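Homework help board

Subject: predicted structure for assignment chain

Our instructor gave us this sequence and asked us to write out the predicted structure in token form, then describe one feature. I got the tokens but I'm not sure how to describe them. Can anyone check?
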Amino acid sequence: MNAPNAITVCRVILVPVIVYLLYLPVSWAQWSSVGLFVVAMLSDVADGVIAKKREQITNFGTFLDPVADKMLILSMFLALSGLGVIPFWIALVILWRELLVTGIRSVASSKGVVVGANWMGKTKAVFQTATIIAAQLFLCYQTTGPITDDQVNFGGSFVTALATLSALLSVAFAGVFVYWNRALLFEDI
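My token output:
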């Protein structure tokens, strides 16, 4: 197994650890969850850079890398909604978008067409990552010590606003993605 694939496998293994630590109601665990999430997201960048630089792009890595990303992002949105930090409907919108785009890519693949990532997917990923980190930090500060009701209200409102923006971007970019790939979807109708 080459280095980029090993990094991706490690990211997959980290997902349940990150979620488990997030659910522990002690500050060290939740802070560790934040740190491991950041490491996992940086590893996503690292494995891609290494694979391209060393020309180690493999079918296994091409398959597993986006799966690992989806596992991490979806697990975190669902976990954070389960903890009441992010509204559940937002986690469902993120899940819906991922299933829709993955479905379109599967249809394209069955027709021998590769639909790669673009700037919209990367922008969406940045907003989702920022949302997850903000939500984790908000949870950490609540667990760490006393904060005022005003701080809780502001932090909760900020996280909800950021999560809503992530959901809206996900829906808008999914709409553009469907439009761009409409020929693949509707050629049999």
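Reply (TA_rk): Your tokens look well-formed. For the description, you could write something like this. DSSP finds seven helices and no strands in the chain. That's the kind of observation they're looking for.
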